[in-house]
Amino acid sequence: MSAEPVLRVRNLHAYIGTPRGVVRAVQDVSLDVDRAQALGVVGESGSGKSMMARAIMGRLPARAECSGEVLFKGRDLLSMPRKQRAEIWGKQVAMVFQDPGRSLNPVVRVERQLTEGMRRLLGVGRSEARGRAVGLLREVGVPDPERRLRNYPHELSGGMRQRVMIAIALACEPELLIADEPTTALDVTIQRQILDLLRRVQRDRGMSLVLISHDLAVVAGRTDRVAVMYAGRLAEAGSTRLVFDTPRHRYTHALLEATPTLEHERNTPLRLIPGSLPDPVNPPEGCRFTARCAHADDECRDPGPSMAAVAADHHVACVRPVTGPEGVDLNGR
Ligand SMILES: Nc1ncnc2c1ncn2[C@@H]1O[C@H](COP(=O)(O)OP(=O)(O)OP(=O)(O)O)[C@@H](O)[C@H]1O
């Protein structure tokens, strides 16, 4: 296995012009996605997870500006000629979106949606593409795949549609799959099945996966490493076990406490994080969590702080980090 990460994001910024001013959606984010590994990206709604994914995939809104580096196997997608990067997106890097209802074409049968990419990008012939499509549907757990190929999206359940979306994303055998809240529209049991499917496919194929969710329980047990975002910046990153067992950033800690456990559901009310995200047009200069953090002092309001190592494969951007083991067991959620 090569040591070079499949994706290396360096100092990524994504700013969006709005009538109210410039939204700093992503600010100075650097992270790696290793080969054949799964990285979870977590944070509250509005923390910049989707914009980061969209910047990586070249799908930012029209009025957005992006800077930094997005190195896929060492080559910067942001500075690459348009034609070359269009080939990488879709073929070597694929994405699964939140809502399969909106991503699938309602008037095109499953077969064409599944085979289109492999015929166009891989030059696979019609009958071979059909055979591969059947295999893909089987891989993602769609029963009776031959019959499903003839279906239109509305003839499938929400869970089946999302499985088809995953099959489409896998069709060109990507090396990296980015899944942005892939189960939001589904009920809890189906959510788990789809999330477990993503992890299984990632492992079976030796593919890399970025799994984006506002819910820490979703990435616990399904990722090798995790990056916690807050208000456009990285708060903490490292091995999933280390970050969840010994969270160092006050935000990660608060987020863990606000994640329901079976225990919590039965007994105690959840401890929600008081306050809300700072204004993305005028974020504070220092740590962006300052206004909601019980441990903040003047030093936290100074510009920065930047990510610093607290252990091997564990980095945190916090002046007053949590000390001692204060993790929350998310197993079984
Ligand atoms: N099209 C847009 N135009 C302007 N600002 C936007 C746009 N989309 C998102 N934003 C802003 O960018 C910031 C980051 O949003 P983003 O959608 O990346 O967050 P997120 O963590 O993915 O949240 P969610 O889980 O709700 O999608 C937020 O302040 C959001 O309001």
UniProtKB/TrEMBL annotation:
Any one GO MF annotation of this record: ATP binding
SUPFAM superfamilies given in the database record: P-loop containing nucleoside triphosphate hydrolases
Q: What is the protein's membrane topology class?
A: Peripheral membrane protein
Q: Supply the Pfam families for this chain.
A: ABC_tran, oligo_HPY
Cite the InterPro entries for this sequence. AAA+_ATPase, ABC_Ni/Peptide_Import, ABC_transporter-like_ATP-bd, ABC_transporter-like_CS, Oligopep_ABC_C, P-loop_NTPase
Which keywords has UniProt assigned to this entry? ATP-binding, Cell membrane, Membrane, Nucleotide-binding, Transport
Q: What residue stretches are annotated with the ABC transporter domain?
A: 7-256
Subcellular location field:
Cell membrane
Q: Does the keyword Nucleotide-binding apply?
A: yes
* Gene3D superfamilies the UniProt entry points to: P-loop containing nucleotide triphosphate hydrolases
Family membership, please give it. Answer: Belongs to the ABC transporter superfamily.
UniProt cross-references to PANTHER family, sorted A to Z: DIPEPTIDE TRANSPORT ATP-BINDING PROTEIN DPPD, OLIGOPEPTIDE TRANSPORT ATP-BINDING PROTEIN APPD
Q: What is this protein called?
A: ABC transporter ATP-binding protein
Originating species = Actinomadura vinacea
